[in-house]
Specification:
By secondary structure, the chain is of the alpha/beta class. 44% of the residues lie in helices and 18% in strands. Strand 10 (271-275), helix 10 and strand 11 form a beta-alpha-beta unit.
């Protein structure tokens, strides 16, 4: 045991010395003490100058080489490389989705997961497919290293559209779709499985005796299909009848029409599931309904972006933006560095149901 402790102490000391020499050399390179192309002192000279073992100097140089600051040549030594230009990753999304939407949170996690050698440029698609397509074409021509994109909702691309995108990106530029996908395009894809999220929400509502559940549909075709499928599966498994009048479509340009539809069924329902930003816009109507939340009317949000702004705080299907952002950015960087298999990844993360007070 004494020998083991002694060995651990020695290893810690050695690692500290490697880090200290690495930090010193890096600081001198960044300060211009050693210019681009200039040779660093030899391993032997560094060992003598700093009173270190040669193995310590070799380890410090290896770390600098891994960081792209120097290159080592057998028999010649280590030479300073020029400053590496950061690689551009373009992000295509709909700017007007900010600030109370999933897209805003996703951007934060993409940026947080990005390596030091990259920068993220933002590009507005105006929720218009021709703009989206032309932006990808121009970015590829400009030499962008990779593209992460949220395809516009409401438009179903033709086979010609798919062919144009595949011909444009080919093997030149990696493309990662997030939130929504375009079938047939040679891209990685990360999103949320709302089908499973809705099933979790309905099962939770059923435990408190709620059986007259309203659903306000999402504004994206992918998620509408998934939430309807999840609603059907959950209600069938739990023996709950779905009333078609309780499935509400929403024109996001006309909140008043939705309020009128909701007023017509409020007396009948005992639960409602809808995007959380929309529920925040409806909370005055829900409060004035005369129904106590959650005893007489349970409320479940989708996305969990603005849940704290509802009173009481919303139980929510949490959109897994952190997992999607990390996975999309990590995949993008690995594609750019060509360090992962060519097979494309398609993943819908299962969302967590966050139980709060509604």
């Amino acid at each position: 045991m004494v020998q083991l402790r002694k060995w651990v102490v020695q290893m810690n000391v050695a690692n500290n010395k490697v880090q200290m020499l690495h930090d010193l050399l890096k600081k001198e390179i960044e300060a211009g003490t050693y210019k681009q192309g200039e040779k660093l002192p030899s391993v032997r000279d560094m060992a003598v100058s700093y009173n270190l073992n040669k193995s310590t100097a070799v380890a410090a140089l290896a770390t600098l080489a891994n960081e792209g600051l120097v290159r080592t040549e057998a028999g010649r030594g280590a030479f300073v490389l020029g400053k590496r230009e950061p690689k551009q990753i373009a992000m295509l999304y709909y700017v007007d989705a900010a600030p109370f939407r999933v897209e805003t949170e996703l951007l934060r996690h993409l940026h947080k997961s990005m390596g030091e050698d990259y920068f993220l440029s933002l590009h507005d698609t105006t929720q218009n497919y021709p703009v989206f397509r032309d932006k990808i074409v121009s970015l590829v021509r400009s030499g962008v290293k990779g593209i992460i994109a949220i395809p516009p909702k409401g438009y179903i691309p033709t086979q010609e559209d798919v062919d144009v995108l595949n011909d444009t990106i080919s093997d030149r530029v990696p493309l990662v779709f997030v939130i929504r996908n375009i079938e047939g395009v040679n891209a990685d894809y990360y999103s949320m499985n709302l089908d499973t999220g809705i099933q979790k929400a309905v099962a939770h509502l059923a435990t408190s005796g709620k059986r007259h559940i309203a659903l306000i549909e999402h504004d994206s075709r992918k998620f509408i299909e998934e939430e309807l499928a999840g609603m059907e599966t959950a209600c069938r498994n739990l023996g709950i009848l779905i009333n078609p009048r309780y499935i509400l479509q929403y024109d996001y340009n006309d909140l008043e029409v939705l309020k009128q539809k909701l007023r017509q069924i409020l007396e009948e329902i005992d639960a409602i599931i809808a995007p959380d930003n929309l529920l925040c816009s409806l909370q005055e109507l829900l409060r004035n309904s005369g129904k106590a939340i959650p005893e007489e009317l349970s409320v479940v949000g989708i996305n969990d972006v603005v849940s704290p702004f509802f009173y009481p705080p919303l139980t929510s299907i949490h959109f897994p933006v952190e997992a999607i952002g990390f996975s999309a950015m990590n995949t993008m960087m690995m594609r750019i560095e060509k360090s992962m298999p060519p097979e494309k990844i398609r993943r819908n993360f299962v969302p967590e149901l966050i139980i709060r007070e509604t």
